[in-house]
Amino acid sequence: MNDKVAYLLILSLGTPFLADAAETNLGGFGRTMLQQNTGDSVTNACVGFVNAGTQIGTIPLFDTCSAMVVTANELLGLGSSELSLGLNADELADALQQIATEEYAATGSMANEMASGRVDPIVSRLHALRGGARGFNLSGLLQPDRAATPLLGGGRSGKQDRGAGAGDGLLDNALSGFANVNYGSGDRDSTDSSDAFDFTNYRLTLGADYRLDRNTVIGGALNFTRIDTDFDTRSTVSGGNIDSDGWGGVLYGTYYDDGYYVDGLVGYAVSDYDIKRSIFIPSNTAVPSIGETAKASTDSSDYSFSLGGGYRLGSGAVSFGPYFRASYTRVDIDSYQERGAVASGLNFNVADQEWTSLTSVLGVEYAYVVSGQQAVITPQFRLGWVHQFENDSSEITASYLDDPRNNQFRVLTDDPDRNYFELSLGVSSVLENGFQIFANYDTLLGLDNLSDHQFTLGGRWEY
């Protein structure tokens, strides 16, 4: 490397001309904090190579960072066009976005989605158990004047029908099972920390529970979850994706009496992630452009706790009342190293990540029983206000794998939505043979950048 190029690279550490938040000239061309941090990290790695006397053409990372830094300096009138990519200011900012690490924040979002998604089917199951979803006397259900009592917990835990014998049927089949199949989709808008992406998820939950007495049920479930995330591909973003599989288990229980109920659960799961980060650096000169994909795999573990309660009011076929739930989740994502970015040398070494979520939900639920000769059908509605206490914006650290000086690159994630709403619409049907089928639609309302829609179809049966 000649002395002139070395001088231009050192000069890049001067006060940036365009953005006060950036530390370097290249970072100053960034339009967002993520782009500015990316430009600063590229420059710091480059200057380290200069100080070590590294020659152009010997290390791909040095060649890449030199081309981008010299391009920024040329735009500022600080030197010649040697090694420059010939980009204008907007094209250089777009190039910074193309090589940024927007997938890092998305990994945490997926981990939280998987953890919360494992809780939702169990919350629905607890709701059904309090309504006599298993171990009830079916003959009592099929009589219109008494259908609401066992299905809705009677508003008084079935005490009204105890003398008629229907309540005793609760213990005839103490063990029961259930299966849920879930499909969901959603999307997230682009922010300063993350590119836009859409996702689909598939979830299977299998469980069994045991009724200890008229008022107490305990159980357990196993689940499998898959989430596929694809980043938008457009002129400023070259795409990329993250695929994740997760396996977990949940223990749960509920107690209800005299109209009130209390339930809780604890869960643990492990997940794996396959990450593809697309890299594209254009060039309008003889310097070659770069288009390639950095790949990585990592794992996570998470555990969740949830405690809830409520009170049921009602008359006849109608049941309604307030409910409350508090949930805590912690997700630990292992560190990982990227591979595949050979031409650019932009493979990252990403540090461990930790995500915590603490939410409260205060809402109202409603159910109405329609009795027939062949089945009892129950439409249900639930709307709750969610408040997030934790899951603050966090800093993810990384360094370029080929940088011997291990300069740290930081990614600041978005602040969470503190207040939003959960909406659940469902219908269940109890058939003459004791088998139940149900369908649910769940969504989140009031989130700034995220939409999420979940559809569940399931069945329950008695042993």
Would you give an account of this structure?
This protein has 463 residues and is of the alpha+beta class. The chain is 21% helix and 46% strand. It has helices at residues 3-11, 25-28, 33-51, 60-75, 89-98, 102-130, 138-141, 148-151; strands at 175-188, 197-211, 216-231, 233-234, 237-238, 240-257, 260-281, 290-311, 313-315, 318-333, 336-337, 348-350, 353-368, 370-371, 375-388, 395-400, 409-412, 419-431, 436-445, 450-462. The protein has a 12-stranded antiparallel β-barrel with strand order 1-2-3-6-7-8-10-13-15-18-19-20. Strands 11-12-16-17 form a 4-stranded antiparallel β-sheet. Strands 4-5 form a two-stranded antiparallel ribbon. The longest helix is centred in the N-terminal third of the chain and has 29 residues, at 102-130. Residues 134-168 have low confidence and may be disordered.
How many angstroms does the end-to-end distance come to?
Answer: 78 Å
Strand order of the largest sheet: 1-2-3-6-7-8-10-13-15-18-19-20
The helix/strand order is HHHHHHHHEEEEEEEEEEEEEEEEEEEE
Rounded average pLDDT:
81
What is the CA-atom radius of gyration, in angstroms?
A: 28 Å
How many H/I helical runs? 8
In helices, the fraction of residues equals 10-25%
Q: What oligomeric state do these chains adopt? A: single chain
Number of strands: 20
Backbone structural class: alpha+beta
Strand content: over 45%
Parts with pLDDT < 50 across at least 5 consecutive residues: 134-168
Largest sheet, strands/sense/barrel: 12 strands, antiparallel, barrel
Write down the overall geometry: elongated
